[in-house]
Design brief:
Strand content: 35-45%
Strand order of the largest sheet: 3-7-5-4
Shape: flat
Number of helices: 15
Structural class: alpha/beta
Distance between the termini: 42 Å
Largest sheet: 4 strands, mixed
Helix content: 10-25%
């Protein structure tokens, strides 16, 4: 038997619960106008449409314009539905405040003359590369279509001859005839190589970092602008391939071409030079103290010095009193400086903020939740909006984490939760495949048969009898937590293989309908030249 004829899919039956809608009017009902009495002139005379290889009929919009013109009315597409358009007529149906139907007639003139079709002949500015003084014929064609919204001319429709940087002749070819002249202004892009005249930027000072001692895009941009007295932005150039000695600069927007700049990189390690803003403002200390902690001062240093992200491995902070602290570079930094501040005793114990320490399930793709996932769970349960400027989350396990207040908070607390692993589609698919292919893994026994109806009946009986046991066999308990089982059963309608079913090499079909997936196992006969689809009947939806 033919394999294609025997392969079948099982599709879902959707149960629709009928409802009755009753509308009670307080006033008299709105009297709808008969469209036949509004459109009094049914002969619209001539409608001119652009020539096209696809259709020489007018559009619904063009028919509506003709109706409004001859009858001097102002109907819109909210008033009428125009269908069955031919080159000689169309059907009009009243909608909205109108009802009834009527028919209008007309003659269609296919406009082929380029001079009539290109209504807007002033094309405006056309931008060209710095290596050119006038646009190409393709540039002009794009501009023609852009300012004439109803046109979509191609190179098979017109021949364009550029006269100079302000004029071009457009001649109809192929499906078009006639000719016209279009005008424009030419904007020549500036070569970035000629704009950045000084390519040697001298020294760029960057903060010391364990990750990179190369300058950032912003630092290279600042250096270019400084030595060349420019004000370029990321809308003018893209800077790439940055090393410690140079970078590539490509013009964009009103600029083009590329150039290379060179420099030397100085890695700044001196803490006195790095902490440019030494007046930290108000630093909130613990409610139990008269001065801030070293962590409070560190947070304040990074806050007022936006380009810094110092850690406790970079500096040692010694609090002198409630107004001063000494900062000494350690690790990757050296030197020292003094910072000043005012102290405010307004810290809040984090235990009074995080009142619900049992967070419930945290869904994660990793073996344990991330800092961000724990933070989100805290915010969700307690309906607050903590950030990494408020708390430090450490010692994360699969069941708990420590939360320490920082910034305007102090104190510590412990939160508990259950880690639920988020399985990917491929992992779920593999689990189902393994459940079916492993010997005796399912609580059902199906004969390999070409009798589809017999297989349908056997599966139907089994699914109706023991759905819970089947689900347990297919998915592990933690996988089951990820899904809301809407229906687990066998569908009794049979269809041919849908054209939009995606074949998966492991022997499954995945029917793509939003996030609902139906999987099918193929059982072949002994010779392997035919077979049937034996469906699992599992329809699952992500929570």
């Amino acid at each position: 038997m033919n394999l294609k004829k025997l392969l079948m899919l099982v599709a879902g039956t959707v149960l629709v619960v009928p409802t009755t809608l009753s509308v009670v009017a307080c006033n008299d009902p709105v009297q709808l106008k008969k469209i036949d009495s509004v459109i009094t002139t049914k002969e619209l005379q001539e409608i001119v449409v652009p020539s096209s290889d696809q259709s020489d009929k007018p559009s619904a919009t063009e028919v509506l314009i003709a109706i409004n013109t001859v009858d001097k009315i102002s109907l819109t597409d909210k008033d009428v539905e125009i269908t069955n358009i031919t080159i000689t007529g169309a059907d009009i149906k009243g909608i909205g405040n109108y009802d009834g139907t009527t028919n209008v007639t007309f003659t269609t003139k296919v406009e082929k003359n380029l001079d009539a079709l290109i209504k807007t002949k002033e094309l405006g500015p056309i931008t060209v590369p710095s290596s050119s003084t006038q646009p190409t014929d393709k540039d002009v064609l794009v501009a023609i279509n852009s300012v004439n919204k109803d046109l979509n001319l191609t190179e098979q429709d017109v021949k364009i001859t550029i006269k100079d940087d302000k004029n071009a002749t457009v001649e109809g070819i192929g499906n078009f005839d006639g000719s016209t002249t279009v005008t424009f202004t030419t904007n020549v892009k500036q070569n970035i190589d000629k704009i950045i005249t000084t390519k040697e930027l001298k020294e760029i000072v960057v903060p010391s970092s364990d990750k990179s001692d190369k300058p950032s895009v912003a630092e290279v941009m600042d250096a270019i602008n400084k030595v060349n007295s420019l004000s370029l932005t990321d809308k003018d150039v893209t800077i790439a391939n940055i090393t410690t000695t140079g970078a590539d600069v490509a013009g964009i927007g009103k600029y083009d071409e590329t150039t290379k700049v060179t420099f030397t990189t100085k890695v700044e390690k001196n803490i006195d030079a790095l902490i440019k803003t030494k007046e930290l403002g108000t630093v909130i200390g613990p409610s139990s103290s008269t001065q801030p902690t070293d962590k409070d001062v560190l947070v304040a240093i990074n806050s007022v010095n936006k380009d810094l992200n110092l850690t406790e491995q970079d500096v040692k902070i010694t609090i002198k009193d409630d107004k001063n602290a000494t900062v000494v570079g350690i690790g990757n930094f050296d030197g020292s400086t003094t910072v000043t501040f005012t102290t405010s005793k307004e810290k809040v114990d984090i235990k009074t903020v995080i009142q619900n320490t049992v967070l419930g399930d945290i869904i994660t793709t990793d073996s344990k939740p991330s800092v961000a996932e724990v933070m989100n769970a805290i915010d969700k349960v307690d309906k607050i909006n903590l950030t990494n400027k408020d708390v430090e989350i450490t010692n994360i396990t699969i069941t708990s984490a420590d939360v320490a207040g920082i910034g305007k908070y102090d104190g510590t607390t412990n939160v508990t939760f259950t880690t639920v692993k988020q399985y990917s589609d491929s992992e779920i698919q593999d689990a189902i495949k393994n459940a079916i292919t492993e010997e005796n893994s399912l609580p059902l026994s199906i004969k390999k048969t070409e009798n589809y109806n017999t297989a349908v009946q056997e599966l139907t009986d089994i699914f109706k009898k023991d759905n819970d046991k089947l689900l347990s066999a297919l998915l592990s308990k933690d996988m089951q937590k990820q899904f809301d089982v809407k229906k687990l059963g066998f569908y009794d309608q049979v269809y041919n293989t849908p054209k939009n079913a995606d074949y998966v090499e492991n022997g499954f079909f995945k029917y793509p309908k939003t996030n609902v997936k139906v999987y099918f196992y193929i059982a072949y006969n002994a010779t392997g030249d035919s077979g049937i689809f034996i469906p699992i009947g599992l329809t699952i939806t992500n929570k």
